[in-house]
Predict the 3D structure of the following.
Amino acid sequence: MSSIGIIGGIGYRATSYFYEKINTLYEQKNGKGNSCPILLVSLNFKEINALLPYEMEKVADLISPTIKYLDQQDITSAIMINNTMHKALDIVLNKNKIIKPYCHIGNLINQKLNEVEDVSNIIILGTAFTMQDEYLKSFVPENYNLIAPSEEIIEQVDALRKIYFESANEAKTKECYQLLTKTYLENVIFIVACTELSMAFSTIKNKINWVDTIDLQCEAALKTIKN
């Protein structure tokens, strides 16, 4: 049976959250008791994290064998759990002939924003590095205005991300959410581009104009697999 390929372990709590999310969506689509066929390859995040976020060529060398391995398996698409590592994923894809499609966070953000109307401002939420880096910003359509988050926003969002890497704190999540929504009152789409932040903000219900990249990746992967 064809499966969805997942490169996980980076980190393991994020992988667990991804696994639960994709199976929840699969069960909703196909009926109670159904679980999604998944081929999970789990990497050692400690080894990779020592190189992030600046030594992407070395990260690409570490993950290249895994990407090549998955490409030889019976999968319909693949997901890279760690958003920051999509830069390394791009390096591998550009250097090698990889056939199996990846649910690429950048392409999915671009596709989603091209479907949105009446909102012109974007703020990307992620690690401190991601919020200041140009990589994900390059996928945002030109008709949007990218908001540069303040130092206070970057500090608080990144602190929340670090909390959820190891545990959880709904009070801190609510505090961060309130800061964001009070600072940016209207006409803003928040793009959640970090798995730990997806885990945190999942506790906030009825959010308006929030785009979760985990949802985008899981939904895209599920479209490729037969019921």
